[in-house]
């Protein structure tokens, strides 16, 4: 007998966790879907079920726990009930963004500036000396920095953040439709990765590239650093195909990097290993960058569907189909 059923249905209710010392409870209004959700949903990264996905949230504080005597106070004013905040948190299930209330440490949230919508702020959570010292110039300000994937959320913020810190030789690779915006954000030169001679175009401007395939040995310059935002996707997740991912850059392109090139895996999830970033990145740095207009949130593609689960499912499907281009998938968690 033929039957029809939705791809997902509501099954789990989770208790709202009371705030412990240093924590706040946030009523979540908006969240954003990123490749990390897809890696977790399809990439065998989750072993215990039920599991709540979601790394970012924007909403309103509904409860503030007692002070944590061991916490380092933020530079900004203390959070209060009613404050509009956004945050990046995913280390415990009570923090994950795809639920109507999250209970999170205060330092994993920051106030949303008044002129910014929650759906714009929720695209942001994540990355640098702070505040930028007056007249600060990096000794490497004129060295070429290549950002491959500059239209993606990570790449887009990297270009803006580097521009804010005074780097002025930024080479951005993205499809042509994003070039004008990337130039406005600070890219010095832009390249289209769909053009067959893109590597030669970059070499003509930057003079060398650290990967051996299309260029000659004389392009080799020891000391080049390649920052790879992991996981490296070997095969992308598709509707019926599991992705193949690796966190270890030494297992890909083996023997193809030129001598003297340093390949560094980047894991933003561990930003709290840096004591300063732990206590200030979300409460102070991100709100200040937004207030100053130093970074502009990603463009948002709003996912519309009747229920939270349908919106979550639609977002995962769009990620599987690799639809997002220069935009973040953003959707409502609660309607009030
Ligand atoms: N380890 C960590 O802490 C961490 C943190 C965040 C993200 N990540 C990972 O970093 C990756 C990027 O994340 P994201 O949030 O920036 O993704 P995203 O916004 O969904 O990336 C989409 C963009 O990728 C670009 N793209 C696709 N194929 C490309 C190619 N061959 N060359 C250049 N650009 C290409 C597309 O550019 P066009 O529109 O120009 O086609 C598109 O705009 C993901 O794998 C994610 O899991 C890791």
From TrEMBL:
Check the record and name the SUPFAM superfamilies matching this protein.
GroES-like (SSF50129), NAD(P)-binding Rossmann-fold domains (SSF51735)
Any one GO molecular function term: oxidoreductase activity, acting on NAD(P)H
Q: Which InterPro entries match?
A: ADH-like_N, ER, GroES-like_sf, NAD(P)-bd_dom_sf, Trans-enoyl_RdTase-like
Where the record annotates domain Enoyl reductase (ER), the positions are: 8-330
SMART domains, alphabetically?
Answer: PKS_ER
PANTHER family (UniProt xref) = ENOYL REDUCTASE (ER) DOMAIN-CONTAINING PROTEIN, HYPOTHETICAL OXIDOREDUCTASE (EUROFUNG)
Protein name in UniProt: Chaperonin 10-like protein
